[in-house]
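TASK: fixed-backbone design
INPUT:
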């Protein structure tokens, strides 16, 4: 009964916007460092130390300025999703068990206090590594970029918590954080804008629910959620390089209602999702005939005939769409690793018009350069 009530509530007027910055996306490469680090490049190099680089490419790496890839690349310890370093004046520092009020590096505060401290010009919440036990929803009232550093925000099943409930017209970014509201909802948004990148949603009732809004999600994992992973209802969506796997007990991995041709769902992997009673387990679509999903892998779970896929590897039971291949994509390990093997038929199968320049791991597409891209979230 709780599950039904939650889902019914969230399908009414929810708005989720997840917008990934359009700046340079930097692969997770070694090298660089905080402070005045850098290296002596060859004669004519762009830089020899970090301060010689511009703010949007703050790291000197072998004589070339590049965007930061990790927090250690930045003096402030805060690497933003677009590869720039956050100025120290913008950062609110939080730690598990933090008790400070200043939310500084010297006096870190709790995550609740950090979110309550958001203000114009102080919009970056930097999490110290660890697990944050949460008993109430986050309701940000100002713009926020949350840098998780691969920390976990967890809520026990007894709370049935909506972890991020966005009801204000503000911008919220979730970057490199593990969201785990057991028996609850990862994100529910009624207003504003959400960026979700390199973020994991697990063990929830539902990972993300998006209503009448724009949704952009990249390099994200949505896994082992007990009802379904994603639900879109009358959304304009852009979802790329995302694994939606191992979800469901009573419903599909992805549910799509009232989507239109302005939406993009490409280079994703939907696999091994489950549903009870013979229901559609992979992806279910309704009133979305103009929503064509390209360059995906949807295998090991069923597909609603109303869904339209093209240039994809699809489950053998799906007979719709165009230019699809019904073949085993050769996952490395079903149940644990949904990257594809070097011999996968997914190689070079993407629509030649695809322009996506990176995959789930931040590695370049296509490889080799000039070839056709692979389908699914992983580029071989």
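OUTPUT:
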């Amino acid at each position: 009964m709780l599950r039904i009530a939650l889902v019914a509530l969230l399908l009414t007027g929810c708005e989720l916007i997840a917008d990934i910055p359009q700046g340079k996306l930097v692969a997770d490469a070694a090298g660089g460092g905080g402070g005045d680090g850098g290296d002596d490049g060859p004669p004519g190099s762009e830089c020899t130390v970090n301060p010689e680089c511009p703010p949007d490419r703050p790291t000197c790496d072998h004589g070339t300025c590049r965007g930061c890839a990790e927090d250690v690349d930045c003096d402030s310890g805060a690497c933003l999703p677009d590869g720039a370093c956050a100025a120290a004046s913008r950062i609110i520092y939080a730690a598990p068990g933090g008790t400070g009020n200043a939310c500084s590096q010297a006096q870190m505060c709790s995550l609740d206090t950090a979110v309550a401290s958001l203000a114009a010009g102080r919009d970056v919440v930097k999490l110290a590594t660890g697990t944050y036990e949460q008993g109430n929803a986050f309701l940000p009232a100002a713009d926020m970029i949350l840098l998780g550093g691969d920390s976990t925000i967890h809520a026990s099943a007894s709370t049935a918590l909506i972890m991020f409930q966005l009801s204000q017209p503000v911008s919220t970014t979730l970057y490199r954080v593990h969201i785990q509201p057991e028996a609850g909802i990862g994100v529910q948004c009624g207003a504003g804008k959400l960026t979700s990148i390199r973020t994991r949603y697990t063990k929830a009732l539902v990972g993300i629910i998006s209503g009448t809004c724009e949704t952009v999600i990249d390099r994200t994992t949505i896994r082992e959620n007990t009802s379904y992973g994603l639900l879109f209802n009358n959304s304009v969506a852009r979802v790329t390089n995302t694994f939606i796997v191992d979800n469901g007990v009573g419903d599909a991995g992805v549910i799509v209602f009232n989507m239109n041709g302005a939406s993009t769902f490409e280079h994703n992997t939907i696999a091994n999702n489950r549903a009870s009673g013979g229901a559609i387990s992979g992806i279910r679509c309704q009133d979305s005939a103009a929503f064509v999903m390209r360059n995906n892998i949807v295998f090991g779970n069923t597909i609603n005939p109303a869904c339209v896929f093209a240039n994809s590897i699809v489950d053998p039971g799906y007979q719709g769409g165009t230019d699809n291949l019904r073949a085993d994509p050769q996952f490395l390990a079903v149940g644990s690793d949904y990257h594809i093997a070097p011999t996968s038929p997914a190689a070079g199968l993407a629509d030649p018009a695809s322009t996506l320049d990176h995959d789930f791991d931040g590695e370049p597409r296509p490889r080799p350069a000039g070839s056709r891209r692979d389908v699914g979230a992983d580029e071989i």
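COMMENT: DSSP finds two helices and 27 strands in the chain.
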